[in-house]
Write a structure and sequence with these properties.
By secondary structure, this protein is of the alpha+beta class. The protein starts with a helix and ends with a strand. It is elongated, with a radius of gyration of 26 Å. The chain is built from 14 helices and 18 strands. β14 and β15 form a beta hairpin. The strands form five sheets. An eight-stranded mixed beta sheet has the order 1-11-12-13-16-10-9-4.
């Protein structure tokens, strides 16, 4: 959510942000509603002041008592109009996107994204044709989507034998890596209240269709633990000395994949249920740029530790999403498709989410300000398992385990 004062003072900038992010919102309507609300509230306050003045001076004066009642009735008649204006204004304010930083590349969609760097070398297999991860998973009895489809439907899978142990190894690798940077480990709730889910700012776009909702309980299953982690400090005033607050959460996440019809329908690349390690930071505004660099550096450190070839992408305005002011993606090399596929993202959401959830901090002078919130993927487990399987496959059909994981899982090869 944007500060209404900022919108009043920078309407052109807000309109440009909407255009850059492909969000169609009538900013002039927002300003007109805001003006109407303020005028109506001023009029109502003036009437209340007059009513109070009359009430104090005319307790025994029938004429004044009648005037006071008339004013009270007028105020009451204006209340529905004020409520109507406030409701429409709030709905429009919630749909406005965050303002991209000035140096974010401008583009209409993902074709405008910029590759910042490529790291590592794509594997050169000495055998004729490398297998895709589903072939490997079937032969080595690691993945079973057929039985999962029987039990749960499409886009589910059983992860078996050594693969769950690799998952636990990845979790331990992340925890050992991020604790050196002061991240607090968390296992968060995977169900969140309606207002908390909306607080992160994704549901005004298509993300609501992605979410599993329980209307009886008015609760959502999380699509990422960012939703429950960011909401954790809702309506709190944090101490400046405690910032930045850094968290890393492990949770199962759930998505309908409503917008992915026909994409990655087989296997476990795009599924309804997946495990994920997510980092979230609460920082002072002046520190959020450095915290964003830290998140990206942690993601790259983890990828380098696994020895997976990857590229870092600077996301353009049209692919940025509503809450983010800046976002980077990491894409790992997938040999079977001969291209890079997304495994990580990290975003600086400035005070956009904090305003929606009322998360603030008190500085040394006693002034209360909104924090900045940032998020970053540590590992989306299923996708990383896929990348390991394909990039580390051997000629005999086995899969070599990255050296950094061997101490956690207790084996060097899957065969």
């Amino acid at each position: 959510m944007l500060d209404i004062n900022f919108i009043r003072e920078n309407p052109k900038k807000v309109k440009e942000a909407c255009e850059k992010k492909n969000v169609k919102i009538d900013v002039d309507r927002v300003l007109a509603l805001d003006k109407g609300k303020r005028e109506l509230m001023t009029e109502m306050e003036a009437l209340k002041a007059e009513q109070n003045k009359i009430s104090r001076g005319g307790k025994d004066n029938n004429v004044l008592i009648t005037q006071a009642k008339e004013i009270k009735g007028k105020i009451k008649s204006m209340a529905p109009e004020l409520e109507k204006i406030e409701t429409e204004l709030k709905n429009l304010l919630l749909q406005l996107p965050n303002i991209p930083f000035e140096d974010v590349p401008v583009g209409k969609d993902d074709s405008g994204n910029i590759v910042l760097r490529k790291v590592g070398h794509t594997p050169k297999f000495l055998f004729h044709k490398p297998k895709d991860y589903m072939e490997l998973g079937k032969v080595l009895d690691l993945i079973d989507t057929e039985r999962a489809a029987k039990v749960s439907g499409s886009r589910f899978g059983y992860i078996k034998n050594e693969l769950p142990l690799l998952e636990f190894a990845l979790i331990n690798l992340v925890m050992d890596t991020v604790k050196k940077e002061g991240f607090v480990p968390v296992i968060p709730p995977v169900m969140v209240k309606d207002q908390m889910a909306r607080g992160t700012g994704y549901f005004e776009a298509t993300d609501e269709k992605e979410a599993y909702y329980f209307p009886e309980d008015k609760m959502y299953l999380v699509g990422t633990s960012e939703q429950s982690l960011v909401a954790m400090h809702t309506d709190e005033i944090l101490n400046e000395k405690d910032l930045p607050l850094r968290y890393v959460a492990f949770s199962t996440c759930f998505r309908r994949e409503a917008g992915s019809y026909g994409k990655d329908t087989k296997g476990i690349l795009r599924v309804h249920q997946f495990d994920k390690l997510e980092m979230v930071v609460f920082s002072k505004p002046e520190d959020s740029g450095d915290e964003h660099k830290l998140l990206l550096s942690v993601e790259e450190k983890l990828m380098k530790a696994l020895g997976l070839p990857y590229q870092v992408i600077n996301i353009c305005t049209g692919d940025l999403g509503r809450p983010a002011a800046r976002k980077y993606d990491i894409e790992a090399w997938l040999p079977s498709e001969k291209k890079y596929r997304e495994t990580h993202s990290t975003s600086n959401c400035t005070d956009f989410q904090a305003r929606r959830l009322n998360i603030r901090y008190r500085d040394k002078s006693g002034k209360v300000n909104f924090v900045h919130t940032l998020n970053g993927t540590a590992f989306a487990i299923g996708r990383i398992l896929i990348m390991i399987m394909e990039n580390y496959q051997q000629k005999d059909g086995s899969i070599k385990v990255p050296k950094v994981l061997q101490k956690y899982c207790g084996f060097k090869v899957i065969k």
